[in-house]
Amino acid sequence: MSFISFRFIIFFIVLMALYSLARQEKHRQILLLVSSYIFYGCADVRFLVMLIAISVIIWYIGLKSENGGKRVLHIMGILLCMGALGYFKYCNFFIESFANLLRQESLGTLPVILPLGISFYTFQAISYLCDVHWGKIPAEKTMWKVLLYIGFFPQITSGPIVKAKDFLPQLQKEHRIIWNNFSAGMQKAIVGLFKKVVIADRLGVVVDAVFAAPKAYSGFSLLMAACSYAIQIYCDFSGYSDMAIGVAEILGYDLGKNFELPYIARNPSDFWRRWHISLSSWFRDYVYIPLGGNRKGRIRTYINLFVTMLLSGLWHGANWTFVIWGAFHGVASAVHKMFSDIRKKGRVGQTDNKVGHVISVFATTVTVWLLWIPFRADTMQEAAIVIFRMFTMAEGIRYISAFSIIYIILIMFSQLYALIAHDGKIWWKPLDFTKFWQVFLFVGVIMTIVVFAYIGDTAFIYAQF
Amino acid sequence: MQSKKQTVKYILKAFGACLLVFFLANTLMFVYNRQPGWIERSHGATTSIWSPGSYIVQGQEGYGIHKVDSNGYLNEGTLADDNYVLVVGSSQTEGKEVKAGERYCDILNSALQKEEGKETSDLLVYNVSMDANYLPKMISGFTALISEFPNSSCIVLEIGTTDYTGDELQRMLIQREYNEAETGEKIRQALSEKEQLKLLIKEIFPLLNHVKSQYKALKAVNQHSDFVQEETDGKDMELYAKQLKEVFEMLDILYDGQIIFLYHPTMEITDEGLTAAYEQTTEQFKQLCDGCGFLFVDMTQTFLKAYETDYIVPYGFGNTTLGTGHLNKYGHKMIAESLYQVMTKNN
Q1: pLDDT per position as a tens digit, A167-200
Q2: Smallest Cβ distance to A398: which of B16, B272, B311?
Q3: Between chain A's N and C termini, which has fewer beta carbons within 10 Å?
Q4: Strands B258-263 and B152-159
């Protein structure tokens, strides 16, 4: 069930009604769990069975491996999650890569369908196992609470990846639909919907067309398509996150922030503090720090950074383009760290003046946008063609979409505005519905969605990861 | 009491804000997407017409504003008394997505007027096109067409495919008669009050129509109702030729002037460049045209050459996808030039 469907609207209205009628918190949480499974089961019941099975096993292992308990069980739990992810997501990729290595045409592939949201919920399960084993939170005695944490419907298909230590304590509190949460959540969801259907989906038309036949388009068209993709993926993914966070907020849950104006980042590390924050912090907490972080000398720090980013790239998909993308980000992060260490600046990325700040934001944005090309391309060869034709300003079809220009300017200006007006933290403040012009603005955004929404292929990019 | 007053105040504010937003969005629609009233009819050249005297704005793909004439079609002038060209087709020939003057009928009209040295504003090329008016519908209305618009010297029938099912070819033989009571003006006046009100609402509130079409599109996406084109492989070519021949013979009997089939195939942009869709029926269609003395203007090579020399594609707009969708101004220009060449050569 997609957020952008009539089915979801009906589903959510019914859920809110029942949620309001439920008298006890326990009933509300069980209702949420059942709703989450209905939401998820609509995609494929087989996947639901697997989700429940993994969740139950994780709950059991959590009980047994709590606070440094049975280490073997803890490792087995992590291996179960990694194994499920590895089998469903990477099995055929490794078989094909192995075949290429042996210069074999094919070793055959397995008939595997990628279960929806597996990359997200297995990471949440690992988060639970680690947080419990490391003693950050106690093991949850009530099984359905762990099931709800792993299967919570707003974030199960595309995140944010909420850590156990951030979510489970929320289950100890009362949750009701109150006006403040409803108003703030609804605003976030509407802004997310705007980013998704008005901006991302419209830009997707241009991007898909150009990346389908890069040799046919001019260098400038490719440049515009690459820039459009940078905006598309930001609006698509942050749009989904806003909707998920908004929907959860209406129900009284806090999923945290997932994006913080990433295109005004000053350096690669700053970018990853602003882009897909829940994934970056997951890799920091459960990969980078366990690898030794920055505690084992400079060289190990650079290697740890590189390995973490490489794995982050691989997480995005079973394709060498994602691995290369992750590797480049790893190199960029390591080089930046090295550079900062040499300059012995107090804080990474701090610059002395405004000119330096602007230059570092510009350089980071160019690097990040350029690296989106291999991320979007189907093969490295295709990425190379796009980059080569772009830089040589090759001749071809001129396809400059007016929407690309408008939306690139709109997004970059909104980020700059946020930098100037709100210290780079937010680009809008929650509206006060008691004021006429703020209601007008909110209704205006809804009307803009209705009028300018692109109706067509509206699948979320990150749902495929 | 104070709280009640406050609540009423908030509700009024929200209502006012909604009203203002609606008003502004509706105003925007007058320059972005405004469809005039659509009148169905059963005894005319086409099965529907636009509300006469209205205007149409299309800004979702390209951009074009067009006037609807007294007959209910998109023409910027009055029809000449005789010796004119009728162009009949679908939304491609209507040319709603391009500016007036950039449509192939407009360019051709200017060229023919120049050729004849006429200073008159009377149209030598008259557009009788409607949305979704594909060949089966066009041919079914052929008798009505030549009765509604008599004294033409040439009729151009625009087609995007040469592949028709046996059923469609059979239906083409059933001719629609013309009824004089169904001219644009008369049919408009004869509408009931309820229908008139419906047209008025559609024209005053273009936003409602836009929202309705967005809703329909969303519903279609939710239902995954994709348009599936019939497979052409394994087609009975003999039967196809026999049925099409019958249709062409009928047209030949009905009309003394020149019939031109304007064929513009579906194109696709691939890494190899612009490619045209192949249809096994096209060659047969061409041969039958030759046999009946009809002209077949095939735009395939012209379109491909324009890509090879200048990277120009005939379909699509910057706002949507290039290579697919409606004809853009380059496509219209190339068609006008081809038709002009054919007409002057065969005059």
Answers
A1: 999 999 999 999 889 999 999 999 999 999 999 9
A2: B311
A3: N
A4: parallel
Query: B21 and A214 in contact by Cβ < 8 A?
Result: no
**CA torsion angle A399 A403 A408 A411 (round to 10):** -160
Q: What is the pLDDT of residues A399-432, one digit of tens each?
A: 998 899 999 999 988 888 888 877 766 777 788 8
Question: What domain range includes position A155?
Answer: 6-176
The type of residue at A298 is R
User: Could you tell me if A300 and A168 lie in one domain?
Assistant: no
Q: How confident is the model at residue B114 (pLDDT cuts 50, 70, 90)?
A: confident
| Exposure of A333 in the CB half-sphere (CA atoms within 13 A) | 24
- Cβ within 8 Å, pair B269-A447: no
Pairwise CB contact (< 8 Å): B214 & A450: yes
Query: What is the per-residue pLDDT for B222?
Result: 66
Residues of A with Cβ-Cβ distance to B320 under 8 angstroms:
205
- Judged by CB atoms closer than 8 Å, whether chains meet at B269 and A212 is answered as yes
On chain A, the residues whose CB falls within 8 A of the CB of B59 are none
Mutation site for A-interface testing, chosen from B7, B10, B13, B329 by largest number of A Cβ within 10 Å: B13
Out of A214, A401, A440, the one facing B318 most closely (by C-beta) is A401
Concerning whether A316 is annotated as a catalytic residue, the answer is: yes
What average pLDDT does range B256-262 have in this prediction? Answer: 94
Average pLDDT, chain A: 89
pLDDT, tens digit, 9 for 90 and up, residues B267-299: 999 998 999 988 889 999 999 999 999 999 999
Query: Coil, strand, or helix at residue A342?
Result: helix
- Calculate how close chain B gets to A217, using CA atoms only, in Å: 9
pLDDT at position A39: 94
A274 and A158 inside one domain: no
CB A271 within 8 A of CB A364: yes
| Residues A119 and A259 grouped into a single domain | no
| Closest in A401, A434, A455 to B218, CB measured | A455
Are residues A250 and A182 in contact, defined by beta-carbon separation less than 8 angstroms? yes
A333 to chain B, closest Cα gap in Å: 35
| pLDDT top residue among A90 and A39 | A39
Determine, yes or no, domain membership for A397.
Answer: yes
Task: Given the residues A74, A276, A316, A336, select the one marked as catalytic.
Answer: A316
Nearest CA in chain B to A207: B321
Number of separate domains in chain A: 2
CB atoms within 10 A of CB A362: 11
| pLDDT score at B228 | 42
A181 falls within a domain: no
Q: Give yes or no: residues A205 and A282 share one domain.
A: yes
CA of A237: how far to CAs of A155, A233, A462, B47, in Å?
12, 6, 6, 46
Q: What residue in B sits closest to A7 (Cα-Cα)?
A: B222
Comparing alpha-carbon positions, the chain A residue that sits nearest to B9 is A434
- What is the reported pLDDT for A89? 85
Pairing mode, strands B273-276 and B267-270: antiparallel
Average pLDDT, stretch A21-50?
Answer: 92
Does a cis peptide bond (omega within 30 degrees of 0) precede residue A160?
yes
Q: Find the angle CA(A374)-CA(A379)-CA(A383) to the nearest 5 degrees.
A: 40
Angle, vertex CA A166, rays to CA A162 and CA A172, nearest 5: 120
Same domain, A221 and A293: yes
> What is the DSSP-derived secondary structure letter of residue B258?
E
B270/A216 touch (CB, cutoff 8 Å), yes or no: yes
CATH architecture group of domain B55-176+226-346: 3-Layer(aba) Sandwich (3.40)
Residues from A contacting B (CB-CB < 8 Å) are: 5-7, 205-206, 209, 212-216, 218, 395-403, 433-437, 439-440, 442-444, 447, 450-451, 453, 455-456, 458
